[in-house]
Amino acid sequence: QIQGMPYGNCLLLSDGPINNSTGIPFFYVTPKDNTVTDLLKNPVASLTLPEADGNFCRKNVIDPEDPRCARLTLTGQMVTVPPEEVEFAKQAMFSRHPVVRKWPRSYEWFFMKMNIEHIWLQSWYGEVSPIAVEE
Length: 135
Hints:
- Helix content is 18%, strand content 31%.
- With 135 residues, it is α+β, with helices and mostly antiparallel strands.
- The chain has a single domain, classed as Pnp Oxidase, Chain A.
- Strands 1, 2, 3, 4, 5 and 6 form a 6-stranded antiparallel beta sheet that branches.
- Strand 5 and strand 6 form a beta hairpin.
């Protein structure tokens, strides 16, 4: 009923092991998830990260989803992690989310990552600032 329509989903992500963050979001996904099926057909995606640990929200005891807290939105292309990067993606995901090791193998899990094309920082009710991908 929603074929071809965009929709959101919550996926575990990691940008590297704790002491080696890269800024590149990696995901451990299954083709049994409609989100992944859609991404394999049309890889354009966006990812929004809330200011969960920022000083302003924590200091003022404000919910990270409150519009006064900043959000970082990444947009780009979701791609299957190439063989030469799979070991890094595995270390990245399993070190931050050890529970995934117990997920059923019959789900044919594999790694995807986002090739970031645009970055926007939004704060205070809609002010948006572009950030260069290189930064």
